[in-house]
Amino acid sequence: TALPTGTESFGLFSCTVNGEEREQTHRAVFRFIPRHEDELELDVDDPILVELEEDDYWYRGYNMRTGERGIFPAFYAHEVVGATRDAVGRAR
Predict the structure, then answer these.
(1) Which residues form the SH3 domain (predicted)?
(2) What's residue 47's pLDDT?
């Protein structure tokens, strides 16, 4: 049985937030299990829209896979740089 590999997550996700189309800014690189109510659960490769960078190395953001909002440690996500939807699939 073939399992989903999540390869589609290497393209940029977009979604409508507050009536405005937004593209993901970051990708989760580690799983993060919330310990507090305001924290955001992350799985590896989750597309994230970072909405605010806090001073203490935490981000406030939106998980585009789950539709949840919250805070998470900044080093759990890498910024997606220079990728556009047109460039998806050209790297290999």
Answers:
(1) 21-82
(2) 96
